[in-house]
Amino acid sequence: MSRKESRIQAFQTLFQLEVENTDLTINEAIDFIKDENTEVDFDFIHWLVTGVKDHESVLDNNIKPHLKDWTLERLLKTDRIILRMSTFELLNGETPPKVVINEAVELAKQFSDENHHKFINGVLSNIK
After folding, report:
1. How far apart are CA 104 and CA 106, in angstroms?
2. DSSP string for residues in the chain
3. Cβ-contact 84, 56 below 8 angstroms
4. Which has the closest alpha carbon to 25: 58, 5, 54?
5. Nearest to 84 by CA among 70, 63, 69, 100
6. Which of 26, 90, 92, 121 is the most exposed, having the fewest neighbouring CB atoms within 10 Å of its CB?
7. 3-127: which CATH number, 1.25.40.10, 3.40.50.720, 1.10.940.10, 3.10.290.10?
């Protein structure tokens, strides 16, 4: 089971929950990806998605001081989700910080605007 692919699926689940603004529960949102993916760790995805949704205000309070002339509201949704997800993992996970930050940078390269990965890297490096 690939943690990298699991992080991508967790990101996409969080994005779906935020963008579609539906009444989907976390479990329902994760169930959508279960049929399509067999190579991911659903326990890890559930932990990340639930952790981000349950601790959003705490995560935001950890992120805000490191934004330098930005607000969370001004960030792209993709960047905000990547920062929340990675901050949750930095604060609560067992994965080495360097790996968490590298995975966040890769997510930003794949899903965010050009060069936003540098911003993500800087913010997370300061949080760590």
Report:
1. 5
2. --HHHHHHHHHHHHHHHHHS--S--HHHHHHHHHTT-SSS-HHHHHHHHHHHHHTHHHHHHHHGGGSSS--GGGS-HHHHHHHHHHHHHHHH--S-HHHHHHHHHHHHHHHS-TTHHHHHHHHHHHH-
3. yes
4. 54
5. 63
6. 92
7. 1.10.940.10
Of 66, 56, 52, nearest to 12 (Cα)? 52
Residues 112, 119: Cα–Cα separation, whole Å: 11
pLDDT tens column, 9-42: 899 889 888 876 667 777 777 777 776 666 778 8
> For the whole prediction, is pTM greater than 0.70?
yes
Tokens for 61, please give them: 């309070």
In sequence order, which residues have a C-beta less than 8 Å from that of residue 121 and are 6 or more positions away?
A: 101, 104, 105
